């Protein structure tokens, strides 16, 4: 046993070191308080939502037409890329929690909170994207609330994604008023 001096007495270094030797759960330590199965299921639904959003924005990017719609198309493409980044973050967190990210295309739209949209009209595209961003924002807000303090890493991840979704919603709203 080593002679450890705790500067902060609320941390039991000996106990932490002993528990850390059980490496079977990777990043998930003995102090993790969340229900991993439920959190992974929740994150897989969020992953499905982000993937549907990528597909919707990509479709809108490729099908929006008109000389004046170049900046709107560029916004759609940027949002698609950012939604893909969110999907990547969610998939990585699922793996950290010893889960398996679900990319099954057969169940993607059924698990997604947001809807796919195949509008041909630029105004309808913008509205569909704004509605989907609002759905994502509220979904993340509820997930964060449900997590509480049981999984601070996932909570912070979701809060960061939600902040970006709020920016996306503002972008779409701004396109409606210009």
TrEMBL record:
UniProt GO BP: intracellular iron ion homeostasis
Signal sequence, start to end: none
UniProtKB keywords: Iron, Iron storage, Metal-binding
Residues the record lists as binding Fe cation: 50, 86, 133, 165, 168
Domain of life: Bacteria
All residue ranges annotated as the Ferritin-like diiron domain in the record: 33-178
GO MF, any single term: heme binding
CDD domains linked to this entry: Ferritin_like
Stretches of the chain forming a coiled coil according to its record: none
GO CC terms: cytosol
Descriptive protein name: Bacterioferritin
């Amino acid at each position: 046993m080593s002679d450890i001096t705790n500067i902060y007495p609320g941390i039991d270094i000996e106990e932490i070191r002993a528990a850390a030797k059980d490496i079977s759960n990777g990043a998930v330590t003995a102090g993790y308080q969340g229900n991993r199965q439920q959190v992974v299921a929740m994150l897989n639904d969020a992953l499905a939502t982000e993937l549907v959003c990528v597909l919707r924005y990509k479709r809108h990017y490729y099908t929006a037409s008109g000389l004046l719609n170049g900046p709107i198309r560029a916004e759609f493409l940027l949002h698609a890329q950012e939604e893909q980044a969110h999907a990547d973050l969610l998939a990585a967190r699922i793996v950290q929690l010893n889960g398996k990210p679900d990319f099954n295309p057969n169940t993607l739209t059924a698990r997604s909170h947001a809807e796919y949209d195949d509008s041909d009209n630029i105004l309808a595209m913008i509205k569909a994207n704004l509605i989907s961003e609002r759905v994502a924002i509220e979904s993340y807000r509820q997930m964060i609330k449900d997590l509480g303090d049981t999984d601070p890493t996932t909570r912070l991840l979701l809060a960061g994604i939600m902040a970006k979704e709020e920016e996306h919603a503002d972008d779409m709203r701004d396109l409606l008023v210009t």
